[in-house]
Amino acid sequence: RDYTAGAAHRIAFAKRFGASGEKANAMIAKAVKEAQEYVHPKTGVKGRQPEKAEVNRMYDILDAYNGLYGRIEDPNVKTGVSVLSSALTAAALPLSTLSSLAEVTVPAIRGDVSSALVSLIPAFRETAAAAKASVLKGRPRSEFAMAAAEADLTLASALNVASARLGDSALSKGSAKFNRAFFMVNGNSFFTHFMRTYAAKTAETIMDRNLHALASGLDISSAKGSHMAAQLRSMGIPIETNAQAKAYWDPKTNSMSKAGRAYKALGMRRFVDQAVLEPDISNTPLWMNNGQLSLFAMLKRYPAAFTNTVLPALFRKGLPSWAGSGSR
Question: How many angstroms separate the CA atoms of 229 and 320, rounded?
């Protein structure tokens, strides 16, 4: 599983940034050029040459994505850090399990209470169906299951989540496997899989309800229509008019059908990312992805992800202006 996950990560990197990082170099060069040529539309203030430290930070983020940022080179030091991390992690495993129980309420916080309640029983059904499908090969999958697979919300992908919360990149392969086994035995990984399914089902309920309402004629400029459109945009679905909602709800062409499926998978993935904590470089500070600081990062990784993921959802409930695709 470690080799497969690493290979998939490297393939995804090569596809997005180039086999040797040439696409990443081009992106960074473009960002530098735009910063130099930028002119503020109102004040006329011109941009500036980015400092070397700013450019280096871009490459540090790229290295962190690949697990290379601050990597410990000395094998003896690396072994020592791994052993100490394993010992500290062993004491924290039960506490990490207990902390996951609070996640049951997060889909209602991120979305709304009615959608979360309506989605609870269907989530149990989908989880049970997925378990049967993993045993009985060849069983037809539901439309939800196919969308969840496209969003990488399968049981196999959930097995690493609980261990990753403790920063298992600092551990040896044996210790990381022990962590995953521990969370499987105590049921935490399966609970996490259910929570991801529950959050994805809540997202599907909200998307279907809102698209149907707007496609059926609910004025998008009304208070309720505006709120529903904002919810959809927060999940990555670009709805600005009733006509757009109707096109996605009842597609007339293959291209619109494909776009609708892609947006559905994106909406589910984004909602799950904001409802079920999966600490990674996107929701933790750069220093927490530094291999040389891994021991300290283990103590802060989960709280930092909570602060950057759940708290914005709470703000969103109290401040409707936060409801947007860039509000995470």
Answer: 12
Asked if 87 and 248 count as a contact pair (C-beta separation under 8 A), the reply is no
- The low-confidence residues of the chain, meaning pLDDT below 70, are 1-14, 65-73, 78-79, 81-102, 134-140, 160-176, 179, 277-328
Cβ atoms of 165 and 188 within 8 Å: the answer is no
Buried b vs exposed e over 171-184: b needs ≥16 C-beta within 10 Å?
bbeebbebbbebbe
Q: What are phi and psi of 222, to 5 degrees?
A: -75, 170
Cα–Cα distance, 130 to 121 (Å, whole number): 14
Tens digits of per-residue pLDDT, 77-90? 766 766 666 566 56
Measured CA to CA, the distance from residue 236 to residue 246 in angstroms comes to 17
Model pTM score = 0.61
Six-digit token string for 16: 């997005």
